[in-house]
Amino acid sequence: MAEAWIRLLGIPEILRSEGTQVQPRGRKSWALLAYLLLGRRKATRSSLASLLFADAEDPLGALRWNLSQLRRALGPEIELAGDPLTVVLPENWHCDVESILGPRATGLIDSSAIEGELLEGLSFPECSAFDAWLIVERHRIANAVQTVIYEEAVAALAAGAPQAAASLATKVAGLDPFNANFQSVLIKSLIAAGDQAGARKHVLQCADDFRRELGVELPEEIRRALVPEKRSTGPLVPASAVTVHSYLEAASASRAAGAVDRAMDQLRTAGELAERTGRNDLRAETLIALAGGLIHSVGARGAAVDALLHKSLTLLPKDEASPLTAAAYCDLGWLSSLRGTPESAIRWLDRAERCSEGLPKEQAKILTARGMTELNTARYGPGHGALDASVELAVMTGDRRQEAIAMAMNGHGYLLQGNLGRAAAVLDKALAVVSSEHWTAFAPFVEALRGAAYLAEGKLDEATDYIDHATVLASLTGNNAFMIVSADAQARLHLALGESRIAQQHIHQVQGLSPGWVWAGGRLMDTACEVALATQSPEASVRASRLTELASRSGMRELVVRAHSHRGVLGDAEAAEAVPFLARGIDNPALESYLAARKQLTGWQGDD
Question: How far apart are CA 115 and CA 112, in angstroms?
Answer without folding.
Answer: 6
